[in-house]
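Job type: complex structure
Entries:
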Amino acid sequence: MDDAASLRAAGLRVTAARLAILDAVRQGDHLDADGVARAVRDRVGHVSTQAVYDSLHALTAAGLLRRIEPAGSPARYETRVGDNHHHLVCRTCGTVTDIDCVVGEAPCLQPSQMHGYTVDEAEVVFWGICPACQANGAESTA
Amino acid sequence: MDDAASLRAAGLRVTAARLAILDAVRQGDHLDADGVARAVRDRVGHVSTQAVYDSLHALTAAGLLRRIEPAGSPARYETRVGDNHHHLVCRTCGTVTDIDCVVGEAPCLQPSQMHGYTVDEAEVVFWGICPACQANGAESTA
DNA sequence: CCACTATCTGGAATTGCTCAATAAAAAGAG
DNA sequence: CTCTTTTTATTGAGCAATTCCAGATAGTGG
């Protein structure tokens, strides 16, 4: 199923901006809204910032994109949805890397005490220093 | 060890604002910067917003406070540091509840593929609906 | 009690994101 | 192919959280 079909299946209209956004996010590596906007403009010319935000929300709501928001960083988007994978975030440069779940499917989705909550998602973020930043010593690669 | 001693031990000066911040965060339930500022002012009169932010950073860096930042929410602080506990966040009202780790100590601290990262922390956030919001139907309690 | 420097103050600026009103364009009907 | 309806995009203002700057203040060690 291509992007246009996915959009239609989600009840969304197919526009150049949205196709470009999906493509940009797929190609990019956990881009933030600004990065997506820039990548999209490279593809289809002018697109307003609001259109990017709006589409990003629509696509996220439709389940075509996943939004992650590491502390201290603007929201980032990825196309890998539906599986239970987590993230490795570099404290120095902010790079986000996907990692599959250790325990299998939904590992930590069984908190000991749920305190009456209805839990629907377990989000795991590993914080550390990426290889590049380790090599660069204290220097930032951002 | 009282707060003043903890501050000194961390090489920080003891000021009324900082003691009030530590107390406010301890009493409060995962307060955000604004909530801390208000609680602090209740205790010691006027304190500038910057002093609050600055102190919060200093205290966090010193390990006296832990900062958590659930997606879509301003940063929140808690005094429970040093143990491997996680958080349950309500999608409706944003309330944060502490939960101990399922697997024991540092459960998820063993990602399958580390991709060369030096991991120093595993952060787990469970998303769901708190009991109060479930009872209130779709209504927000925020 | 002094000097030194961490800390606090006040104000302005930045960033990331949202709201509102109008114009444009995709989908379906005829 | 054209028209109509409804979604989507544009422009521009607005907001919240946080940070930066420069100068005043107050802990601390001596």
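Summary: The helical segments of chain B are 3-9, 16-27, 33-44, 49-61, 131-135. Residues 13-15, 32-34, 49-50, 53, 74-75 of chain B lie near DNA strand D (CB under 10 Å from a C1').
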